[in-house]
Amino acid sequence: MNTAEQVASKRNAGYHAAGTVEDGMVVGLGTGSTVFFAMERLAERIARDGLRIAGVPTSYQAAIRARQYGIPLTSLDEHPVLDIAIDGADQVDPGLTLIKGRGAALLREKCVCDAARKVLIVVDPTKMVDTLDALVPVEVLPFASAAVFRRLALLGAGPVIRDGVKKDGPVVTDNGNFILDCDFGAIADPRDLEAAIAAIPGALECGLFTAYGEKITVIVGEEKGCRVVSL
Ligand code: 5RP
């Protein structure tokens, strides 16, 4: 549950990120409640100032919200390189390594992050940590889910298949896959862990984003204003 303070922080982060978008840009649109505020401000700029942008949504949620806001959409097929992406995160460490995927959109979010020249991560201060220790979601091919479960357990993950809310049984992602939430405790070496998960056939992507610190700017919304963090 978000407190009023968290909502204000998320709004400030989202609005700040949207303020940096320039005319003519192709913008990756992440998933989650903080990105909604960025989209809200982009919509205002489109309607009021005639800002011309096209968005690449990372989920059905992002696409639906963008359409409601009148943000024109395009695809990664049309634009394999994006000017900028705006996305949220579940945790951010001092090296700007992220854990993402609470909303089960991590696979497309990582594709969009990889395709973007610059990535703005919008968060409230509760997301900033010294050591990553949140659940790491892994998107898995249903065909291989038992085998991937076993391999993740051998890595010490304590995996749990994510169940739906208002749906019986597992969450089925926008890509038709399952999510295994993995509890690794405090993660000493996120880069090694990401590589170990990537080496499991059928583990399609995980929520650790370790390779993008150089192009990430984190916008930490606060109750009043923002703090901008980059390497
Ligand atoms: C979805 C995500 C979200 O970006 C992340 O969970 C942050 O969400 P919010 O801004 O609602 O806190 O990774 O898969």
Labels describing this entry:
Alpha-Beta Plaits, 6 helices, globular, 4-stranded antiparallel β-sheet, Rossmann fold, 231 residues, alpha/beta, 21% strand, 2 domains
Concise structural overview:
The chain has helices at 4-19, 33-49, 60-69, 106-115, 145-154, 190-198, and strands at residues 26-29, 54-57, 84-87, 91-92, 98-99, 119-123, 136-140, 160-161, 178-182, 203-206, 208-209, 216-221, 226-229. The chain has 231 residues and is α/β, with parallel strands linked by helices.
Describe the structure.
By secondary structure, this protein is an alpha/beta fold. It folds into 2 domains: about 5-125 and about 210-220, Rossmann fold (3-Layer(aba) Sandwich); about 135-205, Alpha-Beta Plaits, CATH 3.30.70. It is built from 6 helices and 13 strands. The protein has helices at about 5-20, 35-50, 60-70, 105-115, 145-155, 190-200; strands at about 25-30, 55, 85, 90, 100, 120-125, 135-140, 160, 180, 205, 210, 215-220, 225-230. The strands form 3 sheets. The protein has a 6-stranded mixed beta sheet, with helices on both faces. A 4-stranded antiparallel beta sheet has the order 8-9-7-10. Strands 4-5-11 form a 3-stranded antiparallel beta sheet, with helices on one face. β4 and β5 form a beta hairpin. α1 crosses α2 (about 35-50) and α2 (about 35-50) packs parallel to α3. The radius of gyration is 17 Å and the shape is globular.
